[in-house]
Amino acid sequence: MAHEHETETIASLLEIMHEHDLDRIKVKAGDAIYELIRREAGAQIVAAPMGAAPAAHATAAATAASAEGAAPSGPPPNAKRVTAPLTGVFYRSPSPDAEAFVNVGDRVEAGSVLCILEAMKLFNEIQSDFSGTVLRIIPENGELVSQGEDLLWIAP
């Protein structure tokens, strides 16, 4: 349950940052410290609960308003975008020592598992809605992604 609260807190802080056009925000909530720093492509999130293992580092997607200048780095016109159906941690493989589900250049079919998003200790397999070739895998393995953020680009 703590993970759900943390995700909501981060989403709220991102919303406040974008609403007030802030470049940086740092908040202490209980024993956790959240520091978000805006970069060109989004915001850096550092969640550091006291006494916890190493802090989690992740990049959240920029909203359309802050990504106006990012159009040239968008997907090619014919590419299909696979977006995150929920906020969670992106994993390319079912376990740390396993092969990645897909790599750039791989051919995938509709229904193929592309990655896993972990939210609230639940591992959700993300499947492709279409067939094609993987052009790009956007998040790094272990990165926190926001709902609606691009995960992969697939060309028909």
Summarize this structure as a short list of keywords or feature phrases.
single chain; 156 residues; mainly beta; OB fold (Dihydrolipoamide Acetyltransferase, E2P); 2 domains; 4-stranded antiparallel sheet; 1 helix; 12 strands; globular
Nutshell version of this structure?
With 156 residues, the chain is mainly beta. The protein is built from one helix and twelve strands.
> Unreliable runs, pLDDT <50, ≥5 residues?
40-72
Q: Pairing-aware structural class of the strands and helices?
A: mainly beta
Count every beta strand, where a strand is a DSSP E run of 2 or more residues: 12
In CATH, the architecture of the largest domain is: Beta Barrel
Radius of gyration: 16 Å
The end-to-end distance, rounded to whole angstroms, is: 39 Å
Tally of separate helices: 1
In the CATH hierarchy, the third-tier topology of the largest domain is known as OB fold (Dihydrolipoamide Acetyltransferase, E2P)
Which CATH class of the largest domain is shown? Answer: Mainly Beta
Average pLDDT: 77
The profile of the biggest β sheet is: 4 strands, antiparallel
Described by the principal axes of the CA atoms, the overall outline is globular
What percentage of residues falls in helices of 4 or more residues? 10-25%
Topology (SSEs and partners):
Layout lengths: L1 H18 L4 E6 L2 E8 L2 E8 L6 E6 L18 E4 L4 E4 L15 E2 L4 E7 L2 E6 L4 E6 L6 E2 L4 E6 L1
Antiparallel strand pairs: 1-2, 2-3, 3-4, 5-12, 6-8, 6-11, 7-10, 8-9, 10-12
